[in-house]
Protein 1
Amino acid sequence: MNILLLGSGGREHAIAVKIAQSEQCGQLYIAPGNAGTAMVGENVPLDMSDFEAVGQFVVSHHVEMLVVGPEAPLVAGIADYFAETPSLKHVMVIGPTRQGAMLEGSKDYAKAFMMRHGIPTAQYRTFTADTLAEGEAFLATLESPYVLKADGLAAGKGVLIEPTLERAVGSLREMLSDHKFGDASSSVVVEQYLSGIELSVFVLTDGSHYLMLPSAKDYKRIGEGDTGLNTGGMGSISPVPFADKEFMKKVEDRIVKPTVRGLRDEKIGYCGFIFIGLMNCGGDPYVIEYNVRMGDPETESVFPRIKSDVVELFANAAQGTLDSCTINVDQRSAACVMMVAGGYPESYEKGKVMSLGTDAADVRLFHCGTKLGPQGELLTNGGRVICATAMSATLPESLLKCYNRVQDIHWDGMYYRRDIGQDLLNLMRMD
Ligand code: AMP
Ligand code: GLY
């Protein structure tokens, strides 16, 4: 069957590689894609927010499956558009409906969903400009540090963690009264701070049944030792060493099962991925956030470990028969190191000529912000540019392979963190 994958990052390159390996995959199109996805399928210059244009392409190219990489088209209702359009409703869409996508599109909606279904998460209250004074009073009942979250999508920047009550009150005012994050902060969730170690758990669901995908941990800050500004993610590892059987059973019983049951009971149309951001607080998992897509760069270490045919899994998810499937996972450890443009996540230049060096066994490069220039030369085209994923029997070995490989990659101004996975290796040494 012909498949269209929406997106242009490393996540989409990693998903595209797995889709292309399936015997069920005919032509694979990626819109808009990058220089990496162009090696796996055919890039198509579609604007994914233009549902009509996407739909026309799907009809004219006999596409039978649409896989949606990023959240924006889902929050805007692309799955609903396909379901409601007679010429498209037969297409299998991997991605939730607009209502399902609210789990990521509105923090308040997600928190209320968790409360309704008894899913462990930080205590919270939601405030608007009209209830600013109550918000300030609520902050005063909490202890430092203070967590403030813009309700809507804010390009990953909408969460503030403030060290003092004074700064928290100031930020709450800026978000609600001065529209710091535009409409996204017309409501603000104020919640209790959770201290622990973060990890990400991924689920593929058809809305009633689910499969657990490998767990992962990403590294969000730009600087070594988790310092400096937040980024889209500077690397990832999978599996997470501390997420052992006992912990994952708690995650499944306390979080995954009630989440999927909640979607089913509330008749929220959901075929796709649920990315659950978790905090491990002394051995107990708490939900920090839901995302309605795979993570980036978590996908770059999770997807290479999936041995099953992903197109078959996706088709079963679309048909509501995921209970007939199992997932086969490579037991080796995967690590991914992200290389970024100098200056990222603040302003940076694009269009730098890249050299990728020599291929290495067991290491795969996933392109993020890259494109081909007029002479076919590889150019940078984003902040996060390219990442190296390696798999080995142990985490230290896979990290070593990644770091050997990235040393062979060059462009003017490139940067990468040299300490991906180190926190976990230190933790393992302490055990
Ligand atoms: P989010 O955009 O919801 O992923 O939040 C960004 C980051 O803020 C998370 O990855 C956590 O590191 C942190 N964070 C969010 N909520 C909390 C919380 N309640 N307690 C501690 N850290 C949090
Ligand atoms: N790596 C975090 C995310 O994809 O949201």
Protein 2
Amino acid sequence: MSLIVQKFGGSSVSDAEGIKRVATRIVDTQAAGNQVVVVVSAMGDSTDELLDLAEQVTLYPEELSPEADGLVSSAREMDMLLSAGERISMALLAMAIHRRGASAQSFTGSQAGMFTDSIHGRARIIDVSPHRIRTAIEKGDVAIVAGFQGMSRDSKDITTLGRGGSDTTAVALAAALGADVCEIYTDVDGVYTADPRVVPAARKIDLISSEEMLELAASGAKILHLRCVEYARRFGVPLHVRSSFSHNEGTWVIPDPDTSITIQEGEPLEQPIISGVAHDRSEAKVTVIGVPDIPGKAAEIFNIMAGAHANIDMIVQNISTHGSGRTDISFTLPIVDGKEALAALKAAQSAVGFESIEYNEHIGKLSLIGAGMRSNPGVSARFFKALSDTGVNIDLISTSEIRISVVTAEDKLDAAVRAVHHAFDLDAGSKATVYGGTGR
Ligand code: ADP
Ligand code: ASP
Ligand code: MG
């Protein structure tokens, strides 16, 4: 008997029909002789809708400004609010399973033993004690767990893990329960060489190393939550990303070079040079202009950013204009961190001694990823030629051993992704299927 953790994303349970379809799939998996633990996300775009509502009730009249205290206590309430989305889908899913003659119990994150730290909105898992889940599956029930949420071990308050965090709940449970596999069900047939919503000619990847999957997820491919890939790699959990709308084999993310894989006749012995192209619209660019070009200034700026909890991504320091003794420093950060970061920088303007700040949310990041880059010269040349042939201007560049990323204007991003995908011969002959979801 296998123990399978199945995670269903919001697009798979967006309406009653979706919930019924998923319930049938779960019951079938159990009937085939498996123990099944399910992790479910909030229905469709309901997390975004709850966020929109929260924004509406906290819009301040012009004459009032938000008090710092108010912001801190709202973070707790925001997690209370958002965690409700998953409670709705888990209970409905349990009812649909009952209707199909199987027994199921749903559990909130805290009932399932997901303990986290106390950072609301981006809590980290510190302990998983799934006693109730184990008891439920030993009794023959399907255990359904609300994704994306936990409970702070210190404050006992409800926390959430950050957007897309249900993937991480699933892997954490799979690791704690010693599951045989963690299946991530979504609205496409697996991990593709690019987002099929942007590149219809994207190709499904059958097998990807966790190293490459980490870079794809970190570069914005939202098919998997970054921390889920890190967690799976750390605990050796095999991940199978697949569609809940089809029975097609999906993509296997293998924890590390897997020696047990047998190469079929006719299959290439070497991995392809490039595994995919990722894009990200969730970052903004900050340029700090006229920073005194003396030791310690970059440290001061990034210390302020750390204090504002901003997750800095790419950084570029320009050479100082001749004779001015001043330089510009540009960096990117998540748009959601932008407000707090800007306020903190402005407050420190005279202490640091810079002249002004520019802030731009209309940027996009494009990344080319492939483990074969290490040993294949010419990848950068081909990459930049594809961008220049498409008339894309590059703002910032950063690289790792297996990735090249650039920042472009947001309205050029889609064309740039398609051009790079094409330039590396990744285009498939057929069109990728997107079964559902709104892409929000
Ligand atoms: P879920 O609701 O199942 O959590 P998400 O919307 O979080 O689904 O993730 C699935 C979406 O990820 C796909 O619909 C697709 O648009 C997007 N995506 C981005 N990059 C990729 C990629 N490389 N391969 C497949 N899908 C991708
Ligand atoms: N419902 C949450 C979100 O939309 C968590 C998830 O879907 O993974 O981010
Ligand atoms: Mg997701």
